[in-house]
Amino acid sequence: MSSSQCLRSFFQLSLDRAAHQSIASRSLLTTPQTACFSISASRCGPPPRKGMIAPPKRGERTLNVKKGKGARAQDTSKRPAPGERKAQRKRIVLSNNNALEVPTLQDLSKETVLKQENEGQVKGLPEAVVDALRAVEAFKPTQGWRLFRRPAILMRRQTMQLVELVKQVEDAGKGAAKQTLRRVLVGERLCGKSTLLLQALTVGFLRDWVVINLPDAQDITNAHTEYAPLPGSQPTMYTQDTYTANLLSQIATANGPVLEKFQVTTKPSLPVPIPSKCNLKQLAELAIANPEASWPIFVALWNELSQPGRPPIMLGVDNVAHMMKDSDYLSADIKPIHSHDLAIVRHFVDHLSGKTALRNGGIVLAATSGSNSPTIPGLDHSIQVAEARKLDPENVPQWNPYKKVDQRVVDCLKDIEVVRITGLSKEEARTVIEYYAASGMLRAQVTDPFVTEKWSLAGMGNIGYLERAAVRERI
Amino acid sequence: MPPRLNVFYLARSIAYRPKPQLQCRIQPAFRVQVPRCRFYSNEKDPPAADRSEKLESQPLGHVSEEAATMAEITGTEGPDLSKGTPVEEVVKDDKEAVEKLPKVMKDALKAKSSSSPPKGSRPYSTMTTQPGGGSGLDVGLVDFKPNTPAPGIAGVKFGLPTLPIPKDAHLKHRYDPVVDQVTNLLMRHGEKSVAQRNMSLILQHLRTSPIPTINPARPLIPGAPPPSHLPLNPVLYLVLAIDSVAPIIRIRSQKGAAGGGVALQIPVPLGQRQRRRTAMQWILTSASRRRNTGSGKGGFAQRVAQELIAVVEGRSSVWERRNAVHKLGVAARANVVLPRKR
């Protein structure tokens, strides 16, 4: 082979390199073409070992020569969209088409809700109230609403206590002195604290109050929504625009008929233009389009509701223990932010502690939670003190001075009152069991021995366990 | 000739007990019938009659027949043979026979003879039923008021328990047997509480799901209630789904029995618990092959419940599996070894 021919064939080989990868990979000309100067770390790591190749993407067809069990075809169907699984888990179902309609079930109404005769009866919720309660997320997925034809509540003794409070506020509202009542709902696990809060909100909706509910304090403090320091606040407060916007839209949906009646009378200075002849619902709805202005809108709405002649307000929060500790947010100097420094929480806590009163009267309710709540020693102590004070004001337990306590928590719950939720009485248990049986969810003859059996199995009438024993088939 | 006095109707009274049961159980499609007893006296000829050829060695008929024959000979009217004769009538004039009667019958005779109305009047009523209480006739309801205290018995505070004691009164058998069995089959790693929660979720899912549409090609067990009743009674729903696909046999492979290294396939009948266990395991297998659409704790329970609904609606692949086993069993039925007849 002459030298010229050899050169030519070498040249040819280099041209064919692209076409014949197998030859090319062996040829000497395949030195990696890298840039002379690079800061990329692409080749710093060790070369991929055999067998360490990434698995094929989902839905990609690969050669599968295995026999037997492993040869099963890969599932190539579409996965649920992001958030779909959680939505399914948290879905709230309020009706069961299989359940029987209870013919004796009567709805609550504006006139009848305050009557004393309701005590110990199961009452249905009117549809408008159900929609409103759904809007403020008062129903929880763990509650047993999905078993029955439509939502109904038992007017138990503690419910009547709250109804009394509503009456008291409305009676005081006729005079000049408005009343703000503050209560913490406490009780054992599954004894119906959230449901009692829901019942209170129901009464509020029926009596045309403005109802504002924070469905779960954990959502405010667990750092899942964005936050920003509030300019001009001393000490620094933090606003949560997305959460506040969502809260305002809930308020607007749930209280629409009430808010529409009132026009904006003050001249709020907002970063967004307000339409002329704007009513309060439209004001609240401004936040949906402009979440960045949601906190000023919330303050403006609150000012409007504090004007004379406006309806009383019912403020509710569930799982209150989460707003009695440091939140998961961090400040600019990497310190945890106390939950009371979040603007919404501060707003609520000021009303709970009685520092600010509701101008048109109203009720502030905070429900504790038996599951998924942090241990807050200050909160537990304050509840004990409140209960002891009711029995004997002279003899209240003192905090052990050698133990640390969150002083802000103790201060905010200094003179709070407590509604302790106990088990149902046997008559109430009988009523609710009869309702279960009438709905077709319980297949048994409701006799006294049967009721007593279930009542005792439920830990002396704890309604959650009563439901579990009677309806849920939970062995 | 049916007996005039049926002993079985006399002995049976309606056992009525208001059972404090949560669920009603599936009733079997056909009731176990009391086998109709044939007495020797019922038969046309006594069994000895057809064995002996000679007329004189054949035994006589029973008393009524004898009397009837005698009446025929003498030309008078004898007893009606189409009806039996009560023993009391037979022994009416026979003192010796009366003495040898069983004690019960003697007492009955004595009571009958002294059944003249009592003299004088009592200031209180001895009627067991309330006069004018509107309750009507006592139709033989046994144990209607189980909790009436027995004042005469000393040392019994709450009265005696009524007999028979209901099945679910035993601590260890207080739940429905099928629910219990399925709960144990759902259990993994000994976590029974989790299995119980799953069972509860399954029943809840069955209860809230729409009414199933039955596929006529996949009939459920006979005697099944209409589908509209099922969601209101989830335990029945579960039992129905399991029992409908439960195989009645399994195939046992006997090695070396067929010769040439081939296993002989022998169908073996299964008991009720075994049948349910097999069916539930098939259902659980095909449920675990389903895709989990949600997240959280209830995913598996939801898939099992969907599979159960699919079984009732005839969509499930478990049906093919059952049919395959039955088909194989029919093909291999020649291999069944039955005990030799003697």
User: For the terminal residues of chain A, how far apart are their CA atoms?
Assistant: 92 Å
User: Which secondary-structure class do the elements of chain A indicate?
Assistant: alpha/beta
Q: Tell me the name of the CATH homologous superfamily of the largest domain in chain B.
A: Ribosomal protein S7/S5
Q: What would you say the CATH architecture of the largest domain in chain B is?
A: Orthogonal Bundle
- How many structural domains are formed by the residues of chain A? 2
**CATH C-level of the largest domain in chain B:** Mainly Alpha
Low confidence ranges of chain A: 21-32
The helix-strand sequence of chain B is HHHHHHHHEEHHH
How would you describe the oligomerization state of the chains in this entry?
Answer: heterodimer
How many runs of DSSP E, i.e. beta strands of chain A?
12
Strand order of the largest sheet of chain B: 1-2
What strand line-up does the widest sheet of chain A have?
A: 5-8-11-4-12
Concise overview:
The complex is a heterodimer of chains A (475) and B (342). Chain A is α/β, with parallel strands linked by helices and 475 residues long.
Layout: helices, strands, pairs:
The complex is a heterodimer of chains A (475) and B (342).
Chain A lengths: L2 H13 L5 H6 L57 H6 L16 E2 L14 E3 L2 H9 L16 E3 L2 H18 L5 E8 L5 H14 L3 E5 L2 H5 L6 E2 L8 E2 L1 H14 L1 H4 L20 H10 L4 H12 L7 E5 L8 E5 L5 E3 L4 H11 L8 E6 L9 H15 L15 H6 L4 E5 L4 H13 L9 H10 L5 H8 L5
Parallel strand pairs in A: 1-2, 4-11, 4-12, 5-8, 8-11
Antiparallel strand pairs in A: 2-3, 6-7, 9-10
Chain B lengths: L6 H5 L51 H12 L12 H4 L4 H5 L3 H11 L63 H10 L5 H17 L25 H12 L3 E6 L9 E6 L2 H17 L10 H14 L5 H14 L11
Antiparallel strand pairs in B: 1-2
